[in-house]
Amino acid sequence: MNLWRIGVVIVAWLAFFAAPGVTSAQDFPNRPIRIVIPYSPGSVADVFARIVAQPMAEQWKGSIVVESKSGANGSIAAEEVARAAPDGYTWLLVTTFFVASPALNTSLRWDPVKDFLPIGQICRAPNFFVVPSSLPVKSVAEYVALAKAKPGTLNYSHPGKGSTGHLGFELFKRLADIDVTGIGYRGYPQMVPDIASGLINSTFLSANQALAQVQTGAIRIIGAISDGRSKYFPDVPTMAEQGFAEAQVTPWFGVVVPAGTPEPIVERISKVLEAALATSDVRERLDVAGCEAKSAPLAQFAGIIKADVALWAKVVKEAGITAD
To answer: Which positions ≥6 away from 254 have C-beta within 8 Å?
Structure first.
């Protein structure tokens, strides 16, 4: 009886790997891989994906095609990948939208935990608390004091609902107990000029965006929203140093695949990603793009995803943000 059961299992596995489009981990990959980006071509997500895709493809002596599928705050791309064949040939680049979407969209047709398997984290892109140079504040404490002195008169901008710039600032507002109006934009290109002009009083910007504006003298950085002082602006104190440790939320970027992808293939992809991130060339290119290489393979990345789903669900609820 036991031999019969073993035989059934072996036959099932042989049938699985004989199915069209399915290969063993040893043969993987034997055709081009597609990594889907939930934002437009040229976005930071697109840049980070291309930086790691090239060395990963070189290790396999194959090809990885980067494909943009923007729309619905990342949901169009996520749903497509969730429904793709679980064979390791379709990946999704993920960031804050991935873990915030369940709390923001009641009709979501994909789940970040149930419908995907984590491959690994690529990097963390520290954000900075920015104000226009015309605003008379030089620290987070001074900003909070001004906001409390003039409730409802200050504003902040963000590049879209569910972004770190949106939810992260809402978290800070709750911790600081201040009334500041949020103004959403379609993206950073539309938003940044209004910060520089002073039309917008505050925002969270990534390192490369902040650097460009600092050099013009248009903005002032009053806080680093990261676990420690950033090498991009080492003289800027963190939110924790200024009394708001819980407001330190750093956007991360990573890769996931559809649930059901065979474990040996998941592990193979993860190891190749780790190897790419270990090279000085990839780390330098990510660094120049404003994202610190920060690998977090498999189980560790799964823990990050689950923790952030819970964090943003709490922020959305406590901030009274209406779900779509």
So the answer is: 93, 94, 95, 118, 119, 120, 121, 122, 296, 301, 304
